[in-house]
Each structure stands twice: as structure tokens, then as C-alpha cells.
């Protein structure tokens, strides 16, 4: 690089080809300065070209105050005259906070230009020349290699297959060691997390593990590399910071005090998921008292006597996953509580804790009735969001409906099949956008933020799951996935999945938006759990269910493996029109389960297992506590070829 008087300082832009996370290294071949002060180089990082400017799209100092604030948006180097390797560590080259950099970055592009900050005088000069021999990255995150994949997925639709791997890559980028100098500076540093593997929310920010995010990101982690340790470290650490009233903090930020109302429930859901996937029942036994405090002490305090509904009052000042300006008998909080009660009740039954199982199942039933009675808007045929409109002191339901409450109402069994179909039809009509389904059907709550044009892949996961669970709705899931993941995968930085999408498919919070956010990787569990169809029904896949959705857009075959503590559970299915479906299943030692034989309009439903005709059984499966009848065959350890239809 040479100095030039013509068109501003000389600059180069390096494109790493995809989003990455780590510590940038620059091998300098030397530098020359004509006056006092070493030649200065400034660096701006960005996940997208759109926000690649003369300051980083986001850098740690943006959230820092006082002594923690080292930069004003760019990293600085005073390049030495002799060849050496510079590493982008957090800190300053000289005393009194001169020539500083913010350290680790999540980025795709980095711009370097010859300039010294006036405030870095006398150490730095804006004239001279700098020679760079090479640039490399010290990769910081989980490195996914062919050997590290203990689970995989492939299907006849190449885009879906690609998105499965893109989702895994997104979570890999956020799987890293927690270090005080690489996390969010707003009081997120934590001695009890220091040095441990965790699952961060995003690669670029906040680089703090949030438990709601894990409701999706951990599933991606279990299903791809079977890496449960990062999740367990986070769950255990948050449990150790449980408040006396039962509330569990969402993350270490603000010294474990960020007030979110929904995240303690997600902590419970994630604890059950962890137990189901990892089979580590010692974890859940150790933290059962924490679960009891959340479910039986914290939330019941906020249940209103008259209606029986869970109510968040505005005075509490609590937010949720999207810091939404709503309070009252919000459907989402109620439905998430029902979901938690039912899911945890299933685990309690398996663990022989029958009293807890019954108490929670019965509370879920009562609360479900209350939600149906009070919160359903029979005019549009969907649940109200549940809060009142801004400035409405009367406290009547605002005429607004949300994706979160409606999706969770379906998943938790509050809505029956017919109601679920009506809700999903309404939601498609009201909220479909070219880049996914919006999370509100109106922007009345927050006109400036245009909620009716905002899409969260995170909360869309639950809507998509609802579509895949509701008979007749699976093709609508394919349509929504094609819009949502099709949009992100075709827009910069591609491959990685975004924290949120705003009007016109934009990054919803501009440059600040994290473009690699693990909570948006629902595509991985959706494909593995619903299209491959594998779900654990007892801890550690001791028992499981294989219920693939066979009507899913143009998908005519799917295959893959799901890692279990007993070995991989392999599934391959292929359909031939309305004639035949075949399944090859490999069941690991010490496990057993049911292969569902779904109704997909086959001409005949003759079934053979390894060539021998069998009569399918009917199984009663409990899914989140809802009993349902499924025709299927029972399978234990071994390899099977199952055929349904015409030979
Ligand atoms: C370049 O700057 C360094 C550090 O300030 C100084 O020691 C050196 O003398 C300068 N070189 C020239 C040629 O001025
Ligand atoms: C970036 O450029 C803008 C406009 O050219 C200027 O106002 C601003 O001060 C620059 N910021 C930095 C960090 O150099
Ligand atoms: C940021 O810029 C302001 C205004 O130029 C300056 O006062 C301050 O010292 C700078 N801070 C850092 C950390 O560089
Ligand atoms: C943070 O500190 C650790 C040592 O505790 C060090 O290995 C690492 O490189 C530092 N990271 C940055 C970005 O400075
Ligand atoms: C964080 O909170 C704990 C418990 O309230 C307290 O002991 C500790 O000093 C706080 N840490 C900081 C950095 O404020
Ligand atoms: C299971 O969880 C317990 C309690 O959290 C932990 O001490 C143990 O190391 C875990 N076991 C494995 C195999 O990860
Ligand atoms: C559900 O809808 C079907 C078809 O419209 C109807 O026949 C059935 O009675 C409905 N069931 C309930 C419980 O409303
Ligand atoms: C979205 O596009 C419309 C039409 O092109 C435009 O008027 C509007 O300003 C855009 N909004 C944003 C946030 O980009
Ligand atoms: C099942 O395995 C057989 C034998 O390897 C193979 O011919 C068939 O294509 C497989 N079917 C599926 C659906 O994978």
C-alpha cells in the first residue's frame, strides 16, 4: 500500500467469502515513515457490503462506557518498520489508550486504509507506506469438519439441504469459549462462565449466551455435532444465578439482571430438551429444585384469580425476546407457560415424579381453557396478542395478533386441530411477506418499528413447527421456509442466518443487526425432527419417534442421521407418487421406538417390514402432553426396510 495525495487515503477491502469469527492477523512486510510517528492503519469490519463504511458495522466499544471504550468504531495500528505479525487483540499499543483495537470480530469484510487518528498523536502518522505480505484469521469458533458431523441431512431439494448446513455453520460461529475480553462489555463478564464453552447469541454481538436463543440454537447443536457441553454450561450457570423468587436471568449481561419475563420458561424448556437429547438425567435431577421454583413459585404469583390467566403488568418493567411493548394477559406468555408445563410434565412422568407430572398437566389443562375462553378472537379466528393498545387505560384487548402466541397455542395443544388450521390460514393471509411471515399482523404497538413488516426467524420456527404438526398444513411450511431461508441465503452475507429481518427484507436494525444468529437456525431442527422425522421421547433417545412429513413441497426423498448417546439413528425415505413409500431405518443398540405410517393418499396401504407383510399398529403418542393416535410399526435395535403401498 502506498500513500497518495489524490483520492483520499489508499484503502483495500478483503472479502473472506463468508461470515467468520476470530482474531485477524496481518503479516506486515515492513513500513516507512518520513516524519515522526509510525504509519497508521485503520480497520473497519462488516458482515455485509451495505454496512461496510469508514467504521465497523458493530464493534465492542459501541456498547462500552468509560475505560472499556477503546475505539470510536475502527481498530487502529501503528505499523512498525520491521516485518512482524500483528494480532487484533483487545487493547492499546501505547499508554493512555493510544492506538487501540477492539479485538475479536464477527465479519465477512474488512476495510483497511492508511490513516492515523489525530488523537493517536504523537505515535502515529498519516503519511508513509505500509507493506502487507498476508492476512489470516485465527478462527475462534467451533470448527465444523466432515469428522465433526455426527448428524447430517440430505433431501431431493438441494436448497433445503444447503440451508441445513448453513444453519449448522451459523451455530458453529457462535459456539466458542466465553472470555471477559471477547464478550459484551455491558457487565456481561462472568467469573463463573470464564473459559467455558458456550453458545453465544451471535458471532458479532452480543457474544453473550441467552437462554431463549438456545431453544433453537441448542437443537441445531445437538443434531449436527452432538455438542451438548456448551448448552449445559450455560443452563447450569444461569440456574446458579436464580433469584430467590424463582426468576432465572436470561444471560450474564447487566450482571445477570436483564429483566425478561419469558426466558425463565425457556430455561426450563431448554433443560428438558438437553435431557432428551443428551440423556444426562443427573443434570435434570440436580436442577429439579430450580425447575420447581420457576414453574411453581415464580409464575403462579402472576396468575390472576378472576380469569386464571398469567398477567404481566406494565409496572414490572419486564421485556421478552424482542423487548415488546406489551403487558396484560398476553397469549404468548400464557401459551409458553402451558407448553412448558406439558413438556416438563412428560419428563417428570418418565423420571417417576408423578406428583409433579399430574400437577403440571392439570394446571396446563386449566390454563388452556382460560386462554381459549378469554383470548380467542372469533372474528379473525386467531388469538389476540392479549395486551391493550398503547394509551388504552381501559385495558381492553388491542385489535392485534401475534405470531408467537398463536404458534405456541398450537404447539402446546391449547388450539385443537380445526382451530390450528384456521389460525395458520389467517396468519398466512395476514403476515406472508416475500422474506418470511411477519411476527405481528399490525404495527399498532410500535408504528416506528413497523412490526407488521418485521420477521424473526427465531419465533417463525415455532410457527413452522406448528404447520408441520398440523395435518394438511405441511406444504404451507415449505412455502414459508422457501421465502424466509430463500431470502437470507440469497442476500449478503449469505450462508449465515440473521437476527431479524425488517421492511423490504432489510437487516432489521441496520448495521447493528447480527447477521449470524443461532436462534434463526430453526431450519435444522425442522428438517431433522419433522422431514427426517426423528424426535426423542425418552431421555437420551432410549425411546424415539420417527414421524416424517411426507408432503413437503417437491421433496420426494430425504435421508440422514440423528446422533444419540447410543449411536446414530439412521433414516432414509423415498416416495413414488401415490404408489409407494419406502423407509430404511437403522436403530441403535438399546433403543426402540415407533415409525409412523402417515396417511398420504396412497392407493393401498399394505405394509411390509424386511419383505414380510405386517399389520400396522395404532400407537398412542403423547406430544407435549396431548395424546394422539398414530398408525405405525414398532422397531427395536436393527436395520429395517419398511415398505408401504404397492410393491
Ligand atoms: C518513524 O517513526 C518512528 C516512531 O515515531 C521514529 O522513531 C522514526 O524515527 C521515524 N522515521 C523517520 C524516517 O522519521
Ligand atoms: C466517516 O465518514 C463520514 C462522512 O464522510 C464522516 O463524517 C465521519 O467522521 C467519518 N467517521 C470516521 C470514524 O472516520
Ligand atoms: C472518540 O471521539 C471523541 C470525539 O472526537 C473523542 O473525544 C474520544 O476521545 C474518542 N474516544 C476514543 C476511545 O477514541
Ligand atoms: C482475551 O484474553 C485471552 C487470555 O485470557 C487471550 O488468549 C485472548 O487472545 C484475548 N482475546 C482478545 C480478543 O484480546
Ligand atoms: C454482580 O452481582 C453480584 C450479586 O448481586 C455482586 O456480588 C457482584 O459484586 C456484582 N458484580 C458487579 C461487577 O457488579
Ligand atoms: C451431566 O450433568 C452433570 C450435572 O450437571 C454434570 O456434572 C456431568 O458432567 C454431566 N455428564 C456428562 C457426561 O456430560
Ligand atoms: C372440524 O372441522 C371438520 C371439517 O370442517 C368438521 O367436520 C368437524 O366437525 C370439526 N371438528 C370440531 C371439533 O369442530
Ligand atoms: C421499502 O420500499 C418502499 C418502496 O420501494 C420504500 O418506499 C420504503 O422506504 C422502503 N422501506 C425501507 C425501510 O427500506
Ligand atoms: C434402502 O436400501 C436399499 C438397499 O440398500 C436400497 O436399494 C434402497 O434404495 C434404499 N431405500 C431408501 C429409501 O433409501
From TrEMBL:
GO aspect biological process, one term: carbohydrate metabolic process
Please give the name of this protein.
Answer: Alpha-L-rhamnosidase A
- Alpha-L-rhamnosidase C-terminal domain spans which residues? 533-601
Task: Provide any one GO MF term from the record.
Answer: catalytic activity
- What InterPro entries does the entry give? 6-hairpin_glycosidase_sf, 6hp_glycosidase-like_sf, Bac_rhamnosid6H, Bac_rhamnosid_C
Tell me the ranges covered by the Alpha-L-rhamnosidase six-hairpin glycosidase domain, including all copies: 198-417
Q: Which organism is it from?
A: Purpureocillium lavendulum
Amino acid at each position: 500500500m502506498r500513500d497518495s495525495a489524490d483520492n483520499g487515503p489508499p484503502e483495500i477491502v478483503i472479502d473472506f467469502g463468508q461470515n467468520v469469527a476470530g482474531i485477524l492477523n496481518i503479516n506486515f512486510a515492513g513500513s516507512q515513515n518520513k516524519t515522526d510517528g509510525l504509519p497508521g492503519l485503520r480497520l473497519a469490519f462488516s458482515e455485509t457490503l451495505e454496512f461496510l463504511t469508514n467504521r465497523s458495522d458493530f464493534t465492542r466499544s459501541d456498547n462500552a462506557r468509560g475505560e472499556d471504550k477503546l475505539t470510536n468504531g475502527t481498530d487502529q495500528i501503528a505499523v512498525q518498520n520491521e516485518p512482524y505479525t500483528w494480532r487484533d487483540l483487545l487493547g492499546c499499543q501505547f499508554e493512555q489508550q493510544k492506538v487501540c483495537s477492539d479485538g475479536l470480530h464477527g465479519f465477512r469484510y474488512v476495510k483497511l486504509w492508511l490513516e492515523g487518528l489525530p488523537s493517536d498523536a504523537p505515535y502515529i502518522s498519516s503519511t508513509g507506506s505500509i507493506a502487507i505480505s498476508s492476512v489470516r484469521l485465527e478462527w475462534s469458533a467451533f470448527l465444523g469438519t466432515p469428522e465433526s458431523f455426527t448428524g447430517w441431512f440430505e433431501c431431493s431439494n438441494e436448497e433445503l439441504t444447503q440451508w441445513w448446513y448453513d444453519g449448522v455453520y451459523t451455530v458453529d460461529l457462535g459456539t466458542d469459549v466465553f472470555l471477559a475480553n471477547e464478550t459484551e462489555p455491558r457487565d456481561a463478564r462472568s467469573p463463573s462462565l470464564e473459559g467455558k464453552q458456550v453458545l453465544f447469541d451471535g458471532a458479532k454481538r452480543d457474544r453473550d449466551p441467552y437462554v431463549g436463543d438456545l431453544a433453537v440454537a441448542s437443537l441445531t447443536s445437538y443434531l449436527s455435532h452432538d455438542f451438548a457441553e456448551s448448552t449445559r454450561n450455560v443452563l447450569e450457570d444461569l440456574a446458579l444465578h436464580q433469584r430467590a423468587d424463582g426468576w432465572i436471568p436470561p444471560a450474564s449481561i447487566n450482571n445477570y439482571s436483564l429483566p425478561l419475563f419469558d426466558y425463565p420458561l425457556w430455561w426450563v424448556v431448554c433443560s428438558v430438551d438437553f435431557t432428551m437429547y443428551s440423556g444426562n438425567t443427573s443434570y435434570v435431577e440436580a436442577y429439579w429444585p430450580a425447575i420447581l421454583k420457576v414453574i411453581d413459585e415464580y409464575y403462579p404469583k402472576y396468575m390472576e384469580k378472576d380469569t386464571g390467566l398469567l398477567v404481566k403488568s406494565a409496572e414490572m418493567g419486564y421485556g421478552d425476546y424482542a423487548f415488546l411493548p406489551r403487558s396484560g394477559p398476553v397469549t404468548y406468555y400464557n401459551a409458553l407457560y402451558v407448553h412448558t408445563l406439558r413438556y416438563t410434565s412428560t419428563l417428570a412422568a418418565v423420571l417417576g415424579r408423578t406428583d409433579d407430572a399430574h400437577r403440571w398437566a392439570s394446571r396446563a389443562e386449566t390454563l388452556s381453557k382460560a386462554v381459549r375462553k378469554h383470548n380467542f378472537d372469533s372474528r379473525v379466528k386467531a388469538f389476540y396478542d392479549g395486551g391493550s393498545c398503547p394509551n388504552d387505560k381501559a385495558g381492553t384487548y388491542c385489535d392485534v395478533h401475534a405470531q408467537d402466541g398463536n404458534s405456541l397455542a398450537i404447539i402446546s395443544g391449547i388450539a385443537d386441530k380445526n382451530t390450528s388450521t384456521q389460525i395458520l390460514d389467517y396468519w398466512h393471509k395476514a403476515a406472508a411477506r416475500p422474506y418470511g411471515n411477519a411476527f405481528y399482523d399490525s404495527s399498532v404497538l410500535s408504528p416506528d418499528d413497523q412490526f407488521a413488516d418485521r420477521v424473526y426467524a427465531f419465533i417463525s420456527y415455532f410457527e413452522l413447527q406448528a404447520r408441520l404438526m398440523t395435518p394438511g398444513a405441511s406444504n404451507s411450511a415449505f412455502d414459508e421456509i422457501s421465502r424466509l431461508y430463500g431470502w437470507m441465503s440469497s442476500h449478503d452475507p449469505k450462508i449465515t442466518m440473521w437476527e431479524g429481518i425488517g421492511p423490504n427484507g432489510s437487516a432489521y436494525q441496520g448495521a447493528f443487526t447480527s447477521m449470524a444468529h443461532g436462534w434463526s437456525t430453526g431450519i435444522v431442527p425442522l428438517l431433522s425432527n419433522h422431514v427426517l422425522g426423528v424426535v426423542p421421547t425418552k431421555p437420551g433417545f432410549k425411546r424415539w419417534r420417527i414421524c416424517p412429513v411426507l408432503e413437503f413441497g417437491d421433496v420426494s426423498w430425504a435421508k440422514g442421521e440423528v446422533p444419540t448417546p447410543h449411536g446414530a439413528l439412521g433414516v432414509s425415505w423415498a416416495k413414488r407418487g401415490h404408489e409407494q413409500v419406502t423407509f430404511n431405518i437403522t436403530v441403535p443398540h438399546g433403543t426402540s421406538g415407533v415409525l409412523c405410517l402417515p396417511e398420504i393418499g396412497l392407493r393401498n396401504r399394505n405394509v411390509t417390514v424386511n419383505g414380510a407383510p405386517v399389520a400396522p399398529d395404532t400407537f398412542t403418542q403423547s406430544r407435549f402432553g396431548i395424546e394422539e393416535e398414530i398408525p405405525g410399526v414398532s422397531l427395536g435395535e436393527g436395520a429395517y426396510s419398511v415398505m408401504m403401498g404397492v410393491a
